[in-house]
Design a protein that fits this description.
Layout lengths: L7 H8 L5 H36 L17 H7 L2 H34 L4 H9 L6 H11 L6 H8 L18 H25 L4 H9 L4 H12 L1 H16 L3 H6 L11 H11 L3 H30 L1
């Protein structure tokens, strides 16, 4: 009786044999079950409303409940000829212009400060990032109290320093020349922590040997900042600017809660006017057209920013 033995080469070939197609197919289907809930919610609450809103922009859809009819490009032509819509877009651009530079520059400065701090680094990280996790309703309540003409914290200290007359306090949120700046200051204090965290994470990825080699060559801290740190933070700066521009163009919450678009529509921004057209004027079709105009504007700004920063890197 002969015993059939398996050679080592045959055994290794057997172990390297690919699995059966049916088993591989089962494993791939199992993975799909894990992403199915997210895909369903994503399609239900984002993809479907996006296409539905685009369809409504070509109709006279209303919250009154009457049947919607096709109107073609009427809503779009009205949006481009609406002076109030253009005024709201201008206020949005003005807010973006005022808020973006300090939110980028101050984030870099604070990140550099915390990155060099040793003993108090943990406390500074918590202090600078903490406002970002506070809800917008709480933030606006705090700053509305700070901006109060009589008894407000800001006017109180300005009067103590002799900068302001107690008989004529500044009306921060009700003045056309100060309302926008007041909301900008609130927004900078509230959202700067996110940009600060991005810069701090980027600073901690820079190899310390680069600074050590430059210090041996006699480079001062300022030279290291301008020729090493800032150039190595270009990608992070590009990301922060793009994210900040998108966030500023989508401004609504703090404007609505602090000023309500006033005084005299001086702080009425694009999304606020979309809200007024859709939920106060019951014109969902027209509000949808305004929404897509803003969406296209944000898309163009984002693409231009990415192109500019990609060219600089090349």
């Amino acid at each position: 009786m002969t015993v059939k033995t398996e050679t080592p080469a045959a055994a290794s070939a057997a172990t390297k044999r690919p699995p059966a197609p049916t088993a591989r197919k089962k494993r791939s289907w199992v993975g799909l079950w894990f992403v199915l809930p997210f895909t369903a919610f994503y399609a239900l609450f984002l993809v479907w409303p996006t296409f539905l809103g685009l369809y409504y922009s070509f109709t006279d859809k209303s919250l009154t409940g009457r049947p919607a009819s096709w109107v073609g490009l009427e809503n779009w032509s009205e949006a481009f000829g609406d002076e109030r819509a253009w005024s709201a877009l201008w206020n949005t651009a003005e807010f973006t212009l005022y808020s973006t530079p300090p939110l980028v520059v101050l984030a870099i400065v604070l990140a550099l400060l915390v990155n060099r701090a040793r003993k108090l680094g943990w406390f500074l990280r918590m202090a600078f990032f903490a406002p970002f996790v506070v809800p917008v309703s709480v933030v606006t309540m705090i700053w509305i109290w700070i901006y109060q003409p009589d008894g407000g914290l800001l006017n109180h200290y300005l009067q103590l320093l002799g900068i302001q007359d107690a008989a004529a306090p500044t009306i921060w949120l009700q003045g056309e020349s100060t309302a926008m700046w007041s909301v900008v200051l609130t927004t900078v204090w509230w959202t700067m922590g996110f940009n600060f965290l991005l810069y701090l994470a980027a600073l901690q990825t820079i190899d310390p040997n680069v600074y050590e080699a430059s210090s041996i060559d006699g480079a001062s801290w300022w030279r290291q900042l301008w020729h090493i740190t800032l150039p190595l933070l270009k990608r992070t700066t590009a990301l922060v600017i793009v994210l900040q521009l998108i966030a500023s163009l989508r401004i609504f919450d703090q404007m609505y809660l602090m000023t309500g678009g006033g005084p005299n529509r001086a702080t009425e921004v694009a999304i606020h006017y979309i809200y007024i057209a859709g939920f106060e004027g019951y014109r969902i079709g027209y509000a949808s057209a305004l929404s897509y105009v803003l969406f296209v504007l944000i898309l163009i700004v984002s693409i231009v920013q990415f192109r500019l920063f990609s060219r600089k890197e090349d």
